[in-house]
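Comment thread on ticket #2218

A.B. wrote:
> Attaching the input chain for the structure job we discussed in standup.
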Amino acid sequence: MRHSFDFDVAGFSLPAVRNIAAGRTLAWLQAGWQDLLANPLPSLAYGLLFALGGDLIILAVLNHPHLLTVAISGFFLVAPLLAAGLYELSRARGCGERLMFIDSLRCFRRNGQSLALFGLLLALMAIIWERFSAIAFALIGGDMVGSAILSDIILDGQHLGFIVTWFAIGAILALAVFALAVISVPMMLDRDVDVATAMLASLRAVAHNPGPLLLWAVIIVALTLLGFASLLFGLILIMPVLGHASWHAYRDLVE
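C.D. wrote:
> Ran it. Output below, let me know if you need it in another format.
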């Protein structure tokens, strides 16, 4: 049974948020797949951009392990904003429209100021994470470069505490970004709301549905890592499905 919550926080009038069952995550994936089938060319175009962009980034930082790991983790930080075009395709399909790839890019004109501010926030978090990782790896790795750092720090077990701490901090940051972003970008595309209202609504949705949305976060990470394991070519299919599914998550969670 669903329950909805309508509330005001410090002067912000926020939309009602529903309680959902954990099984809804599978329904979101199914709906995302249906959106992909209904918009194959523009959806796969976004997937191709994700894959090619990821490949170029990984090739550029391959000899700098801390940048390689930051590039992968940073991918999770900025993906909610990069998937805005996929949200737009799903929104249009729900309204009975069909958009071409170029048409979906126009979504950034709608509520562009809020989207830009949210993008700056994500960029700031990514920069902070990169600087922290760079300093941490430099302190541990000393003058070593390239694969020497990877071997000495990660594979030989001498710095297990560092690795655990680094992953723990990264996980906390990723969860914070997920909580802020899980419905905020789709909401800013769908409604004329400011970035603060969208993020507060997103946090509230997570607070009322911690189990289902934690499961959703695990599914997103697992599928994305599967895409990385396929040399990013799997992202051509995975990212459109996740992007479309995230739109349906928003529609399910918010009145």
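A.B. wrote:
> Thanks. Noting for the ticket: The mean pLDDT is 84.
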